[in-house]
Structure formats: C-alpha cells, structure tokens
User: Fold these one by one.
Assistant:
Number 1:
Amino acid sequence: MEKLIIGSHVSYTKEEGMLGSVKEALSYKENTFMFYTGAPQNTFRAKIDEDKVKKAKELMKENDIDINNVIIHAPYIINLANDKDKDKYNFAINFLKEELKRAKILGIKNIVLHPGSHVGLGVEKGIQNIINALNEVLKEEGPTICLETMAGKGTEIGKTFEEINEIIKGIKNKEKIGVCLDTCHLNDSGYDITNFDELLEKFGKIIGINKIKCIHINDSKNEKGTHKDRHENIGFGKLGFQNIINIIYNEKLKEVPKILETPYISMNGGKDRTYPPYKFEIEMIKNKKFNPNLLEDIRNYNKS
Ligand code: FE
Ligand code: FE
Ligand code: ZN
C-alpha cells in the first residue's frame, strides 16, 4: 500500500494546546499536522499543560499519527538575519531557544524556520547573522531546525538552494539542521517545479536530499519568479493539480511529511468568516483527481 504522510497547518490554542491540534487534524483525515505554539505573528506563549500533552500523544497513538512527523512552525516575525537592533536580535535568539524547549516538552522533532530578511544589510551579512544565531540556539540538545526555502519577497534570505547551503555550511551542529521545501515559494523564487525529479537532483547536488524534513504543499497565485509568496488552493493556481500530485507522490520524498498551508475559503469571496479547505484538498489528493468544484463543495459543506 502506498504510504502518504499528509497533514496541514492546524490551530493550537491556549486552552487545548496540542490536544486541540490533533483533534483538528483528525477531523480533516490527516496523519500528521503542523502548528505554531501560539499566534504566528506574535511571541506570546502560554505555559504547556503536560496532562493535555499526554492526552494528545495518546490520541495520536490511537489514530496512527507518528509524532516524529509532526512539525512546529516558528513565528514568522522573529528575524535572525538582521542584527541592527541588538535587543531585537537577542530576543529572537532567546525566543527560538525557548521554542526548542517547548518542542522538546511536546515531543516534536522538527521546527520549521524562515531564515530571515536582511533588511538592507546585504545577503552576506544576513547569512552571517543567521549562522551566528543558529549556532547559539543549537548549543543545547533538542529538535532539528528546518530552514524553509523562501519566495524571495523583499529581502528574504533562503530564496535559492545556494543561500540555504551557505547557512548550513556555517552551522557547527549540522545534525540539527534540515530543510523545509515550500512548493509555492520554490515557484515564486524562480524554480521550475514541473520537472520535480530534476529539481530534486539539483537540490541533492547542492544540499543533499536527506536534509529535506518537511514539504509545504501549496499552489501559487503567481507565475514562476515573481517573488510574491501568495498561496493558492491545490489545483487552482499556477502550479496546477498534476504537478502538485507528482511532487506529493515522488518516490524520493515518500518518508517526508507533506503539509498544506493553502488559504481558507470565504462564503462570498469577501472578508466574512472563512473555512479550512484541508479536508477537501486531502480527499482530492488521495483520489489523485482534481475537483473543479472544490470551493463550492467547501461552501456548501459549511452552510449546513
Ligand atoms: Fe513558512
Ligand atoms: Fe511554507
Ligand atoms: Zn508562504
């Protein structure tokens, strides 16, 4: 039987913690998931309820979710590439240290991190700042930090495999560093994802395929090389359904967790309440058949 490790971004609340995340993942028929340990746009973090963690782990076991495939995403506002404001830079380092501790308590092995934006310092200095910060963070035993490949929006670092590799080269504890590919970002940064085997070969030569610990599965609203970073629902963007299926079912990536971060669907296309698409997208992925009525199906499902 074909083994597919697939999940999505799910919520993590102060009240329920990871237990709520597992329940949400199960409601979408996922066998893994990714969450932020609090709001992604801020760094306030609640104390972890160990009893709830135990319950979450039990629920995972009962439902064949391997915790080794579960991912934490570090908040995207911490920026390790810019050290102009030393207080901010040190805060980011300390926050990430705490995030590693939280991951350890929760039993999570992989943390996805946006490398950062140099904001005018230049790529080289930005990379050096990231290296210094990560070497500080990785002094302690703990989970692996997975650098996400970025779209190259603004002054983002990590838009090429070479940049990611420059960072890895500077890390002392290389065991504890991995990579998270993001299909939307790869496209937006200028990589051709239509021949994924070729792209993987390129990645393999520069970094090494064994470094890939997670893949974010997203379609893109924009053409290749536009550096926009706007995710689209599976099959509704410029990547297209079949190209995404080919990535998901690539033999070389069989053991790598696939995580959806596609946009929520609104009822009227406006700014009203939105609904998660994941249950429907995952069903479509498992069937390997595009559903052109997906968005309508999601709206109808949530009407009742
Ligand atoms: Fe990300
Ligand atoms: Fe991503
Ligand atoms: Zn993105």
Number 2:
Amino acid sequence: MTDEHGDREDPLAWARDHMPIHESLAEQYGESEPFDGYTVAVASHLETNTGVLIETLSRAGAEVLFTPSEPQSTHGDVVAFLDSYEGITAYAEEGMSDEEFAEAHHTLLEEEPDLILDDGSELIAKVHESHPGVAEGVIGGAEQTTAGITRLEAMDDEGVLEFPVYGVNDTPMKHCFDNVHGTGESSLTNVAITTNAILSGKTVVVAGYGYCGRGIARKARGLGAQTVVTEVDPRKALEAHMDGHRVTNMAEAAEIGELFITTTGTADVIRGEHFEAMPDGATLCNAGHFDVEIDQPELAEMAETVTHPKEGVTRYTMPDGRDVNLLSDGRLVNLTGPYSQGHPAEVMDTTFAMMFEAGRDIRETDLEPGLYAVPDRLDRGVAERKLETLDATIDEPTDSQREYDSDWRETDSGF
Ligand code: NAI
C-alpha cells in the first residue's frame, strides 16, 4: 500500500479513521489556518493518536516540533512518518535513554516555540527552569494530564509561571473519558496481553480511587476480579466502598493482592514493607504518569535474583523463594509495555481535540501568566462535535424550562 509519503505504509491511517473530531477540526480550520505563523511544541506519548493531533495542527497552519513525554512510549514508525512532513520536526527516537529524552526537550526548546501543548509539564517545567529567555517569548500553553497540573499548580503558587496555561486535564471532556475509560481499558488490556493471565477471579488491588483508579477498578470488577482499593482521601475511600469495592490500607492489601495497579500520581505507594508481605507470584504495575509509585530500587535491593521470564516482565525472587513480578519497569503500563498502543483512538480524539482547541483559544486571549480553567464553551464545543460523530442528538431546553430554571420566586413558579 502507498500513500502521499511514497511507498511507506501510513501508520496513522487506522487512528485517523477513529478520530473523526480531528477530521472535523481539520476541515474547519484547514483553510483559515489559525496556527499560521505559530510554532507549536507538542510533548506527548508518541503513538499514532498523538500523530493525528500533530498532523491536524499542521493542517491548521502550525509549524510543529514534537518530542516524547515518556522515554519508553515512542513508536519509531510514527516519528519517522511525521518527521517526513514539511513543517513538522521530530525531537524523538524510539528507545531513548532518560538522558537523551531530557536532551531532546532542551534542544526543542532552543527553537523558541510560541505555544506548548504539554503532557506531565515536561516542557513547561524545563523552559522555566533552564531556558528563561525562551519562556518569556512563549504565548501560552495547555497541559493534558493530572501529574502536569500538579506541577503547574506548584509553579503557579510560587508565582514563577511566565505565560498562561490552560489545564485541559481538568475539563470534563478530558478526565471523564480519557482518565476513566481510556486508562481503565488500556491498562487492563495491556496487563492481560503482557502476562497472558486471566483477570476473572483475581484479587486486584488498585491504589488511588481518582479518575484513573475508579476506571481501572470498575472495569476489573466487570471482568470478574475481586477488587480492593487503597486511598489516602476519606471521601474517595467512601466512594470506592459505595461502588462496591473492598477498601483497606496497603499493608493489608499487600497480603491478599494478586495484581496491584498504582494510579496515585505520588511516590513510594508500594514499598519494602509491602513487598515483604506479598504472596508468591504477585504482579505489580503502574498507570500513573511517573515511574515512582512502586519503589523499584527497594525491590531490587530486597531481591536475591532478578530475571525476565517474559517480555515486559521483570521477576524479583526474594530470599524466601517468593516471586514478585513487575510489568514495564514500573512505567505507564498502558503505554510502555511490549505491545502497548496507549488509549483507544476514540478516547484520544476528545483529549487531543481539547488540546487543539485550548491551543487555538489561548493564542487569542490576553490572560496574565498563570494556570487557568479551560473556558466551558470549548469543552461543550468538543462534546457537540463528538455527539455529531456518533450521530446522536440531544434535547434543547424549551422556553418554559429556561423560564422555570431562572425563576426563584415561590409565588410565580407555583411551588
Ligand atoms: P486523581 O487526582 O483523580 O486521583 C489520584 C488519587 O490517588 C486521589 O484520589 C488521591 O487521594 C489518591 N492517592 C494519593 N496518594 C495516595 C496514596 N499514597 N495511596 C493511595 N491513594 C493515594 O488523578 P488521576 O486523574 O486519577 O491521575 C492519576 C495519575 O495517572 C496521574 O499521575 C496522571 O497523570 C496519570 N494518568 C495516567 C494516564 C495513563 O494513560 N496511564 C492517563 C491519565 C492520567
């Protein structure tokens, strides 16, 4: 099969077919080219869905510079394909070391982008820390994940942000679908593919009952697993309880869990005392942004031998003979496993449409530097496009309903 890039197969073809919102954005903005004259830096997991976002930005006039947001989630064929476009430049290679990954970010930032569409605040943190002159020239940014928002909040609190940034992760059109359903399905799918183990009947411990954790826990239970949730927030713990999961602390969960999945966004959630208590054959993985949720240095230190019984699986055998299996080196299990493709394209269609719209909108604002909520009209607009692609219609409030909703007087409303 050939495409406009010659005789190479088009690695984005399948994702493009499943990202109709992007096609509608490209159709709407392909002529007016709102990004014309802007250099847009994109940091994200470099798989096919991100490729479609990059292509759509380019079709809307942007000069795009792209780089990974995780060193191990890059697909080389996608990078090579995009890099062959005029106006799109890769700062990425498959299988980069942590040092090469950081170096790529610094090299990209030296090109002085106007806008930054970020994941994990990888570029926004670095531009402020190491390239202050470049940060001054950035018009605005957008951040797509929870971990990045946490970093941006810290930067905003310190008053160091040099430009306005939209917190895309916090929009309903992002976290209600990407975090809950995307992470939920793709994490469990990749655990199943990597281990070839059945989830039904297993005791699955999910650390953190935020958007990602609740998606994973609910879907694991749907597959027949016995789910256990650990939390530090009493309200989230109660929500997990009322949703039907067993709630306990990690010390107790460690003794009964067969599969552990961390989704907290913080460090050392599963550590030495927990590895000590785990049953033989326990499997551990992480779906949070950074590879710090499972204390791997401690695990390596405790183990007598370390082997690789299967691609994507590292087995730590303890002095007492128990095996503890770690998937994907504790990195994002849905994105860095041997067969990982990340979230389904349909889900990333909404997330990346929000990033596209956030980038387009922030160009036109005169916001002071800081972290901002994405205007509701953009979120609603993406939801409407998505409904259109599903051929689904919804009701319009009638005049009498609007009148009823806005009338608080007891006498008039007939209470
Ligand atoms: P969230 O803030 O909604 O949930 C995190 C939950 O973890 C909170 O309920 C918090 O109380 C809990 N928590 C914090 N410390 C804990 C501890 N020591 N033990 C147990 N629970 C603890 O965040 P969200 O949106 O669920 O994201 C979680 C992580 O997943 C972030 O790092 C985010 O960037 C990442 N993420 C990963 C994706 C993927 O593709 N794998 C997609 C989207 C987000």
